[in-house]
Amino acid sequence: MFDLDKLVNDYLVPFGLKILMAIVIWIIGGIVINLVARLVRGAMTRRNIDPTLVRYTESSLRIALRIALILSILSVCGIETTSFAALLAAAGIAIGAAWSGLLSNFASGIFLIVLRPFKSGDMISAGGVTGVVDEIGLFVTTLTTADNLRVYIGNTKVFGDNITVYDANAFRRVDLTAQLAHTVDLQDAVARLKARVAQIPNVVEKPGVDVEILEFNPSGPVLAVRPYCHNRDYWQVYFDTNRAIAEVGGTAHWPVPATRQILMPPPGAAAGVPAATPSIVPGAGGAAPAGTLPNSPAP
């Protein structure tokens, strides 16, 4: 004969109590997890820890506590958790084999967050991309390039390659050149360029502007013009320095550099025929008197 009281007292009531206890534990556990996560986040924020590391730590802590809470609820409900642990371990091995690339990015992301070779807001060059770091994620690092493109780079590629951090030091060097003609007074040119480039906004005073002879070519000497500035002012100083070089040359009336060549008479000239006078065939700089040395100042 069907005994309803026994069914209710022996099965439904205990099962209902377990369900009710599981719900209570889930609610209380969620409150405790949120409280612990907020406390950890606040403590790390007060210590001025990198925001990316704060988010990563908080996320990892929440996941670990949620897993522990679920196992506790299963245990309260009378479900054996040992088999679940073995199942999770087997699933972890299978997932790890299938997602080896993702796990490699994950491991590299942990190293990037812990070692902190750069931080959010730095301008870096990594993985063949140059830009400002928006976020260091668990799997990818997000950059915004100078032409306002967002690029996602796998952390394995970032961590496994050379990383250039442009904001790490107080200043960086701007490398430019100035081509001069042979007739320009080098000492005067160096003095003029140093004085003018030093007046450009955001050029740091120390170290001072470097203007030195870099090399000589057929058109004349080449000067290296190298001011120093903070990375955020690099392109402004770069373009202003180019304009300054053009302004100084125009104010001093420097001639336009031009390549010149000398034409020699053929070695087997016929006897009795007067040898042709060597002549200078200039480029864009105009004609030079016959018999003068190549690239020499005009008399």
From TrEMBL:
Residues 102-164 form the Mechanosensitive ion channel MscS domain. It is a multi-pass membrane protein. InterPro entries: LSM_dom_sf (IPR010920), MSC_TM_helix (IPR008910), MscS_archaea/bacteria_type (IPR045275), MscS_beta-dom_sf (IPR023408), MscS_channel_2nd (IPR006685), MscS_channel_C_sf (IPR011066), MscS_channel_TM-2 (IPR011014). Keywords: Cell inner membrane, Cell membrane, Ion channel, Ion transport, Membrane, Transmembrane, Transmembrane helix, Transport. The chain crosses the membrane at residues 12-37, 63-87, 93-115. Mechanosensitive channel that participates in the regulation of osmotic pressure changes within the cell, opening in response to stretch forces in the membrane lipid bilayer, without the need for other proteins. Contributes to normal resistance to hypoosmotic shock. Forms an ion channel of 1.0 nanosiemens conductance with a slight preference for anions. It comes from the Bacteria. Belongs to the MscS (TC 1.A.23) family. Residues 280-299 are annotated as: Disordered. This is Small-conductance mechanosensitive channel. Homoheptamer. It is found in: Cell inner membrane; Cell membrane. It holds the Pfam family MS_channel_1st_1. The lineage of its organism: Bacteria, Pseudomonadati, Pseudomonadota, Betaproteobacteria, Burkholderiales. PANTHER family: SMALL-CONDUCTANCE MECHANOSENSITIVE CHANNEL (PTHR30221). Signal peptide: none annotated. Gene3D superfamilies: 1.10.287.1260, 2.30.30.60, 3.30.70.100.
